Amino acid sequence: MRQTARMADDVRIHPATADRWDDLRVLLAPRGEGADACWCLAWRLPSGEFGRLPGPDREDRLHELVAGPLPPGLLAYVDGEPAGWCDVGPRTAMARLVRSTTIRPVDDLPVWSVVCFVVRTGYRRRGLAEELLHEAVAFAAAHGAPALEGYPVETGGARLSTSLAYVGTTGMFERAGFARVAATDATSARRPRWVMRRDLGGAARA
Pfam families per the record (predicted)? Predict the structure, then answer.
C-alpha cells in the first residue's frame, strides 16, 4: 500500500491481486457496445497471438495473471475509487518486448519493465501516473529486481494525447530517478522513445 503526500487527494496504491479484479475491470474494460479492449496484454503476448485473441479471451488471460502468484501490475485508488493502473513485471514476462526489434535489450541484466500506464478520465493530469511509477520502483525492488526499465517518449515539450503517452514521458521517468541508457528505434506520435533505467541494487530472485 502507498499513501502519498504529493497529491492533495488520498491516493493509495496496491498490487493488482484477485480480490481487486472488479476494480481493474473498471479501468481496462472496453467502452461502448461492441468495443474491443487491449486488456493491457499487448506487451505481454507475442504480437501474432495478441492479434488473434478476441477481447473476451484477452480478459480471461489477464484474469489468469491477476489470479497468479505475481500480480501483473499496480492499481491506484483516489479517495477509494479505482483511478489508475500500471503494468509492471519481469522483462522476460513481456513476450512482445522480448522479441522487439525496436526496443532491444541493453545488456543481460534480468531487469523488470514498466510498459503501460492507464489513468481514468477525471483523474488525469494530477500526477497519478508518476505516483504509480514511484510505487512500481518499490514493487520491483521488493521482488528482487536488480533494475527497473521504462521505454517512455521524449515529448520535446509537446502535450501528447493519452493514447500516445501511455508509455510515460522521459520527464516523468527522470523525476522518478531513472536515467537514459539507450535510444530506441521505437516512436510514439513520431517522437523518439528511450530505454530508461533505475538501478535497484538487488539481485533477481530465481
Answer: Acetyltransf_1 (PF00583)
pLDDT, tens digit, 9 for 90 and up, residues 94-137: 999 999 999 999 999 999 999 999 999 999 988 999 999 999 99
Task: Please report where in the chains the cell 526496443 appears, as a residue.
Answer: 103
In the chain, what are the domains? 2-199 (3.40.630.30)
Q: What does the DSSP assignment read for the chain? A: -EE-SSSSS-EEEEE--GGGHHHHHHHHSPPSTT----TT-TTTS-HHHHHHS-HHHHHHHHHHHHTSSS-SEEEEEETTEEEEEEEEEEGGG-HHHHH-SSS--SSS---EEEEEEEE-TTSTTSSHHHHHHHHHHHHHHHTT-SEEEE--B--TTPPPPTTT-TT-BHHHHHHTT-EEEEEEEEEETTEEEEEEEEE-------
